[in-house]
Amino acid sequence: MDRAKTAAIVTFGCKVNQCESDTIRLSLEELGFRIVSAREPADVYIVNTCTVTAATDYQSRQAVRRASRTNPHGKIVVTGCYADLSASAVADLPGVAHVSGNAGKGCLPELIRRLLDGKLPSSKDADVFAWRQPSGKPDRTRAFLKIQDGCEAFCSYCIIPLARGKYRSLPAGSVEERISLLRHSGFREIVLTGIHLGMYGRDLQPHAGLPELLERIGSGASGFRIRLSSIEPQEISERLISVVGDSGVVCPHFHIPLQSGSDGVLKRMGRPYDSAFYLRLLEKITARLPDAAVGADVMAGFPGESEDDFRKTADLLRQAPIAYLHVFPFSKRPGAAAADFPDQVPERVKKERAAVLRSIGREKRNRFASRFVGRELSVLVESKRDRETGKWKGFSENYIPVLLDADARANEMVRVLGETASDERLFGRIA
Ligand code: SF4
Predict the structure, then answer these.
(1) Alpha-carbon distance 90 to 96, whole Å?
(2) Which of 94, 106, 320, 383 could form a disulfide with 410 if both were Cys (CB 3.0 to 4.6 A apart)?
(3) CATH for 376-430?
(4) How many CB atoms lie within 10 A of CB 22?
(5) Which of 77-86, 146-155, 247-256, 404-413 has the lowest mean pLDDT?
């Protein structure tokens, strides 16, 4: 009998990409492929790229080169946002057999099979919500479910709208069905993802947005939890906050991109809110959900960002009730308006500012975790122990990394009493 063909998948970027890579992996397994690590020689390598910064472009190219060195006879298929926007540059990389945009991801497994059989691939577009139910025991406790695709916002630093196109949402009935299949497969946490999640439902008839969807999912449900990925500030309504507050399954956790604390910079970024709006939103969330985690993305060194603009950002972050930060130095994306803006900030200054913001982020994480010393939290135990300490680890509902002293079982939801907080984590025991 022929040996099973092997495939390795390398994924960069957002949770939507991770979710789509999972679907590709499961479909390939159904087609009889054996999934191996990208460090091993494989018959085919799938590189699911990201183009959010120049660094992710570089990493995506490096992954292709590495795959070509690992198995010079293997075929390399490149997909994702970088492949969508820089198809010819990607096609010129060594070993690349096929380049597919995001819209073609649903066809990739079948295309790969035909490619390995020596048949010409078809480039027909597929359903952007193509999905496979994970079968058997999950190797992770958490599943990502893409319910929205596309962005029409065109922030001046971002080219994602060019790669992902217009708003599209997965109908609520299909979301419920997929959640039930994921629960059936044993997943205890489902992260709802989208490129522009707050726009969920905008294109559905009749219109039903994220709050309505969460109400529908949460009604009478228990034994699992739902987490929301990033949502734009202007799309977090009082209704959404109260649905999260009233729900028995939606985690009290919002990831809300800020990008800058300077109103002038926000305006040039094309972001439709100002710093006062952002702070008011955080007040509303913490008034309704005092223990909710609010995380933020923040950018260092946007063109024209002065010392004063940067100080405003740092001050806002220090004063705001934020639990953690994701920091990105500004990166020029050809095709994005800001690439040609005057007063580009020197790399050295961007790095220094990013380092200051990261240190604020560490303080924030420590302070947030410390608030739960002596208190109980619900924690979902992960399937792998912490590499450094050997302890069981998990995340609380409000997204605090927790390390457990006692024995626990993977994929179990436990009540944990926080004992100490350090290194941006909470250490505790099962209550
Ligand atoms: S909202 Fe702005 S930053 Fe986010 S994907 Fe759309 S254009 Fe990019």
Answers:
(1) 8
(2) 383
(3) 2.40.50
(4) 20
(5) 404-413
Question: 214 CB contacts (<8 Å, ≥6 apart)?
Answer: 226, 240, 243, 244, 247, 250
Taking the centre of ligand 1 as the mean of its atom positions, its distance from the CA of residue 56, in whole angstroms, is 16
207-244 tens-digit pLDDT: 889 999 999 999 888 889 999 999 999 999 999 999 99
Indicate if the pLDDT at residue 316 is higher than 70. yes
Residue nearest ligand 1's atom 1 by CA: 153
Ligand 1 centre to CA of 157 (Å) is 8
**Pocket of ligand 1 contains residue 197 by CB under 6 Å:** no
* 51-60, 174-183, 314-323, range with the lowest pLDDT: 51-60
User: What residue ranges of the chain are covered by domains with CATH 3.40.50.2300?
Assistant: 6-116
Whole-number Å distance, alpha carbon 389 to ligand 1 midpoint, is 38
C-beta of 333 in contact with ligand 1 (< 6 A): no
Q: Is the CB of 337 under 6 A from ligand 1?
A: no
139-251 has CATH 3.30.750.210 classification: yes
Residue whose CA is at the smallest distance from ligand 1 atom 2: 155
Sheet hosting strand 168-169, strand order edge to edge: 168-169, 142-149, 189-194, 225-228
Q: Are 265 and 311 within 8 A, CB to CB?
A: no
Do 191 and 144 touch, CB atoms closer than 8 A? yes
Query: Ligand 1 in contact with 269 (CB < 6 A)?
Result: no
Q: Mean pLDDT lowest for which of 9-18, 39-48, 97-106?
A: 97-106
What is the spatial distance between Cα 324 and Cα 339, in angstroms, rounded to a whole number? 28
